[in-house]
Structure formats: structure tokens, C-alpha cells
Design goal:
about 350 residues; alpha/beta; seven-stranded parallel sheet; five-stranded mixed sheet; about 35% helix; globular
Length: about 350
């Protein structure tokens, strides 16, 4: 079982101590005996311990930086929500394929933002512009927020904030199971709690440092019993030998664990494995022994957003994925909704 994340090293921006959450967290980490260093900015953390890139990368993944989110213009977040809401950046997991590999670049450390009320104020602006339409905010575009929330409780604060919101809804997804502190949050059904799930082969070989499938399913059951709307992201869907059997077993386990009541309002999102040329370079540098198949000749090239092309599965493989996994979902969860396949 993956233990809850505890940073080996904490950096703090001086201005973070002007906020109650910043002060509270520094006191907590001091009491835990964790080394605390000062940094001018959460974007300028230098001199991480380590003799080479490999060591520094792994130290960064166990380093937490407390800072301020200065840019309060939210990115759009289709297809899962209207906007991304930024409470944290970075992740303690070591998923070989993760798109954060390239977007985080040379800064793979975990950042948690302490100016939470300012982030909520910005969210209010976005909601008021779209009212009376509902505005959905995705809290896990740049991090696995659950992985750090047992320390910060920022997500819990956000769940309760949106629980009182007339026009806002919150969504996030996680591969971690440290959810007990979130079970009593007053969510009022306005937060959809989603788990990223995959077959055992993919979790074993490509998702080190994250919770196992059975643990994620157990956590999903707890979350459903706490009354949260529940969802699952099957991602990345990766074609390996025996993939149809692997995904079939995954859906069987899920169906057996969930109550009939829970199955009435389930959502599924399906995302096929893809990669870019820059991502391939970074993945092979950070995980030189990976079994991840990154052969461009076996893929279809597609223009992505911002002009960066990505390699996805060929059309016939995509059809096979949609038919196979869509078939499993329709068989085991006939009342659920497949939100998209991409």
C-alpha cells in the first residue's frame, strides 16, 4: 500500500507566510522535523540535492514548495470542465507516460498554493460571467491534488466552498486513496469525485508510486458511501498483450464492488495513450528502463492544441478500443454515462 506523501524537503516563498494556511503548514512541517528552506519564488527553486539529473529528479518529486498562485486567470479545461482551478502543481507519483513530464519541464517538484481565498474570488468572477449557467472547475489539470491534500486540506476547503455555491461545481481525479479526511466534507452533491483506473498491467509497469487498482476501488466505495457523485477516468488506455482481458477484469472488479445505488449516477471518461516528441525525450531521460512503447511508426500523427503534434493510436485501433471498452461499460454499468473518448 502506498503511504501518504510526506515531503523530504519543504521550500517556502516569504510571502506565503502572510497567509494563515502558509503559517499553519510551516508550523506543521517544523513539528514533523522536515527541513524547511526559503525560496524567492515557487518557480525558482534551485540547488536541489543530488549528483546528477536522475537523483535531482527523484528529490524534486519528494519536495513540496509553498507559494502564491499569482496568475489568477484560469485556463479553459475541455472536455471535463469549463475551467481549470489551480490549487497545486506537480505530483509525487512516477507515472511514466504523464503529460506533466513535459509541461513541468525542469520543475517536477510539488507546489501547493496558500492564497486559496484569492483563487476562490477569481472563481467567483468566472461563475458570475456565466450565471445562471453552471460552471465546472477541474482541480486536477496540473496535479493529483488528493495526493497532497491530507497535509494541506486545500481540496477539502474547496469542496465545502463549492458545496455552498449556486452556480459552481468542482471536479477532480486521483490515483491516490488517502481520502478519509474528505468523507465528512459538506459537498452537497456539488463535487464529482473521480478515480483514474487502469488494468493491473499498466498500474504495475507504468504507475509506480500510486495506489493499486484494488485500493482505488476500495476508496471509490468509501467516497460513494459518503454521497459524492462518482466518476472514473480510464486513462491512458494502452494496448498491450492481453489488454482486452486486463480491462475486462478491471470492469468486473469495479462492478462487483459498487452498490446498485452508486451505479445510477456514474460517469466514465476514456483517454487513449498518446505522446509527443518532447514527451518521449523527457520520459526516456527520467525513466530509461521503461517498457512504454513509444514507436512513432506504430502510431497516427495528429495536430494538438498549441501547434504541438501528438502520436495517437491508428483509426482501427481506436475503433477497437471504443467498441471493447464501451461494450464493457454498457454491459456492467448500463445506467452510467460515457462523457467522451479522446
Amino acid at each position: 500500500m502506498v503511504k501518504p506523501f510526506v515531503p523530504q524537503l519543504v521550500y517556502v516563498e516569504p510571502k506565503a507566510l502572510d497567509y494563515p494556511l502558509g503559517k499553519k503548514l510551516i508550523t506543521k512541517f517544523e513539528d514533523m522535523g522536515i527541513e524547511i528552506r526559503e525560496t524567492t519564488s515557487h518557480n525558482q527553486v534551485r540547488n536541489l540535492p543530488g549528483d546528477n539529473h536522475f537523483q535531482k529528479y527523484r528529490v524534486a518529486k519528494s519536495t513540496l514548495v509553498l507559494g502564491l498562485r499569482k496568475t489568477l486567470k484560469f485556463d479553459t479545461s475541455k472536455p471535463s470542465a469549463e475551467y481549470a482551478i489551480p490549487f497545486a502543481t506537480g505530483c509525487m507519483g512516477h507515472c511514466h507516460y504523464c503529460y506533466l513530464q513535459t509541461t513541468m519541464g525542469s520543475k517536477p517538484y510539488i507546489r501547493s498554493y496558500v492564497n486559496v481565498d484569492e483563487i476562490f474570488d477569481a472563481a467567483e468572477q468566472y461563475m458570475s460571467e456565466r450565471a445562471p449557467e453552471i460552471t465546472r472547475f477541474e482541480a486536477s489539470c496540473t496535479s493529483d491534488i488528493v495526493g497532497v491534500d491530507h497535509l494541506t486540506h486545500t481540496l477539502k476547503h474547496a469542496i465545502e466552498y463549492f458545496g455552498k455555491s449556486e452556480h459552481g461545481r468542482l471536479r477532480f481525479v486521483t490515483k491516490f486513496t488517502h481520502v478519509d479526511h474528505l468523507l465528512d466534507a459538506e459537498h452537497n452533491g456539488r463535487t464529482r469525485f473521480r478515480f483514474s483506473i487502469n488494468d493491473d498491467y499498466i498500474i504495475k509497469y507504468f504507475e509506480p508510486g500510486t495506489s493499486r487498482l484494488n485500493e482505488r476501488i476500495e476508496a471509490a466505495v468509501k467516497v460513494a458511501e459518503a454521497g459524492y457523485p462518482l466518476g472514473f477516468i480510464v486513462a491512458p488506455i494502452y494496448l498491450h498483450e492481453g489488454w482486452k482481458q486486463g480491462y475486462h477484469e478491471m470492469f468486473e472488479k469495479l462492478e462487483a464492488a459498487l452498490s446498485e445505488k452508486t451505479k445510477k449516477d456514474l460517469t466514465f471518461e476514456m483517454i487513449q495513450h498518446r505522446f509527443t516528441k518532447p514527451a518521449k525525450r523527457v520520459i526516456q531521460e527520467n525513466y530509461p528502463m521503461t517498457k512504454l512503447e513509444l514507436d512513432e511508426s506504430k502510431r497516427k500523427w495528429k495536430w494538438g492544441r498549441y501547434g504541438i503534434g501528438k502520436y495517437i493510436y491508428k483509426d482501427n485501433e481506436q475503433e477497437d478500443i471504443k467498441d471493447t471498452l464501451g461494450g464493457y461499460i454498457n454491459r456492467y454499468f448500463p445506467n452510467s454515462k460515457i462523457e467522451y473518448f479522446t
